[in-house]
Design brief:
This protein is α+β, with helices and mostly antiparallel strands. It is 30% helix and 31% strand. Strands 2-1-5-4-3 form a five-stranded antiparallel β-sheet, with helices on one face. The relative contact order is 0.19.
Length: 119
């Protein structure tokens, strides 16, 4: 194994250990996702997500509820959306999701297009 391969393998190992598999994300419609944070457990990710929502809005925490959306996407096997319950029976999405990645991040996930085209 050459030095470049060893360096990539080391980076992959470090990333897999450093970035937990649970992520809390804010998805405001048809725009980019905004990372709220990573966590080691589902409960911690949900706690961080709710704390972030409450810091950004005046929502009543007693009206917030997690709804499982399944998962089984190419990148995630578990996916929950945060909704807000209303008195009229109509629930609305808060735009916050907690999901678990199927695969750890690798160095190539963070490589720029220029780096990827370099032989």
């Amino acid at each position: 194994m050459n030095a470049a391969d060893q360096s990539t393998q080391l980076a992959d190992t470090v990333l897999a250990r450093a970035i937990p598999e649970w992520e809390a994300v804010y998805e405001p419609g048809n725009v980019s996702d905004y990372l709220i944070g990573y966590a080691n457990t589902e409960a911690a990710a949900k706690g961080a997500a709710i704390a972030w929502v409450l810091s950004q809005s005046d929502k009543d925490p007693s009206r917030l509820e997690w709804v499982e959306q399944g998962g089984n996407t190419r990148d995630h096997d578990h996916w929950d959306d945060l909704i807000e319950r209303h008195d009229d029976g109509i629930d609305t999405s808060v735009g916050v999701t907690v999901r678990r990645r199927l695969h750890p991040f690798t160095a190539s996930d963070f490589a720029s297009a220029a780096e990827e085209s370099t032989p």
